[in-house]
Specification:
Rossmann fold, 40% helix, globular
């Protein structure tokens, strides 16, 4: 029996036994996790995609008995809160989640929201030590979050923008034919960080390349990217570097394709959420994406992992799976079990030293700044079925062939964090 079928049978058996387990553990209070994310508005697709990932990870933990706390086991309970992507709403929901008994908060699809949450959690934990919470971040990648704004209560499981840019630049610097680049991004803390780092790394590694344009646009407000695409094409750029995500990325690449731009896209998130389908044939060999993991990393464990996700969420539009989110939930479960407690202080002390491995992927938390250390991969868009592209993305007929792997040690970046630790 292959790895995938064996894993599915075990999970199915666990799900069938779940009612009996739940009855036996009826007196156990669930460990509440609050996901505060944009679940409506222009970036709702990204929020719902994250929710599917977290649901699947929580289901897996609960299927094997939950987390051990004291003398018994407790299930994880994921609760969703719609911030609409707004700071004020996120802060209101944080209070509601804490009042509702949430001990752990998860968020990621906005570095601006993450900054607001970190500040609020720092103040709350100082003010109410008996009700402290831990913040687990799966996608907010502004470098400041684990540098000058680092917090003992915040743990980031995604590679930050400088780490991702360095991975992209390791490929771009070898493209000797590339002479003209355009940088475009969303006008908020993350997009600004991407623009700064793109310029810095281009100057350091490819001083011969001309930056023919740099632009920041309103986040999640632009409905027609044709004017931006026209500027890119008119600039003579041979490649675009962008940290755009969600609809801002999909609409950008679609507009560029429709205007006939035939250059490359060096992206942080070009491998999902409609981007491959939007750019189509024009993206073959030209859309580059960096990630902590891609479905086509070509290992048996990775294949089984990806196929299991597709079995759980079979709709092509739901095809958005991230290994780091699975590792994050596994790290939380591990930390709770090792602490034998759901106390924020006890769990944070264990999370600082978390080392997790799942489906052939592994990573560790760096105590210095609470930045997760993991390998990264860079992929190039190709037709499904071509060499190295066993799986496509969202039923688009296009997938990403892994062309470069950056080892954990090489992906690491220095930190300026001055961690203030609780007594």
């Amino acid at each position: 029996m292959n790895i995938f079928r064996s894993w599915l049978l075990k999970l199915s058996a666990a799900v069938l036994l779940a009612p009996a387990w739940c009855h036996a553990q009826a007196v156990s209070t669930p460990v509440k996790i609050a996901m505060i994310e944009a679940l409506s508005g222009p970036n709702a697709n990204a929020g719902e995609a994250v929710y599917r990932n977290l649901v699947w990870a929580v289901e897996r933990v609960n299927a094997r008995g939950g987390v051990k706390v004291g003398d018994g086991n407790r299930p994880l309970l994921l609760e969703r809160f719609d911030s609409k992507g707004q700071n004020e709403e996120a802060l209101t929901l944080l209070r509601a989640a804490i009042d509702g008994g949430a001990q752990f908060v998860m968020q990621g699809n906005s570095s601006a929201n993450a900054l607001a949450l970190i500040d609020a959690i720092n103040k709350h934990n100082e003010r109410e030590p008996a009700k402290r919470v831990v913040f687990l971040n799966y996608s907010a990648v502004d470098p400041v979050l684990t540098n000058e704004k680092c917090s003992y209560w915040h743990f980031r499981f995604d590679a930050h923008a400088d780490m991702r840019m360095s991975a992209l630049m390791s490929l771009l610097k070898d493209d000797v034919a590339l002479q003209r680049v355009y940088v475009i991004g969303q006008d908020y803390s993350f997009g600004q960080a991407v623009l700064r780092e793109a310029k810095r790394q281009l100057a350091a590694q490819r001083p011969d390349v001309t930056l023919v344009g740099e632009e920041l646009h309103p986040m999640a407000r632009v409905k027609d990217f044709a004017p931006y695409a026209a500027k890119i094409k008119a600039s003579g750029a041979q490649a675009v570097i962008t940290g755009n995500w969600g609809n801002d990325l999909t609409l950008l690449v679609k507009a560029a394709r429709e205007l006939g731009f035939d250059g490359k896209f060096y992206t942080f998130y070009g491998n999902a959420l409609g981007a491959p389908a939007a750019i189509g044939e024009a993206g073959i060999g030209k859309v580059i994406a960096v990630a902590d993991w891609l479905p086509n990393v070509q290992t048996a464990q990775s294949d089984a992992f990806y196929q299991a996700f597709r079995q759980r969420f079979p709709k092509p539009s739901d095809d958005y799976v991230h290994m780091r989110m699975q590792l994050m939930v596994e790290a939380l479960a591990q930390a709770i079990t090792k602490a034998g407690s759901v106390s924020a202080s006890a769990v944070a002390a264990q999370l600082e030293h978390a080392e997790v491995s799942f489906s052939g992927q592994n990573g560790r938390m760096r105590p210095l700044d609470h930045q997760f250390q993991q390998s990264l991969v860079v992929g190039v868009m190709e037709r499904a079925g071509s060499p190295g592209v066993k799986f496509d993305v969202e039923g688009s007929g296009y997938g990403f062939r892994v062309v470069k792997t950056i080892a954990q040690a090489d992906a690491a970046q220095p930190s300026t964090c001055k961690m203030v630790r609780p007594n």
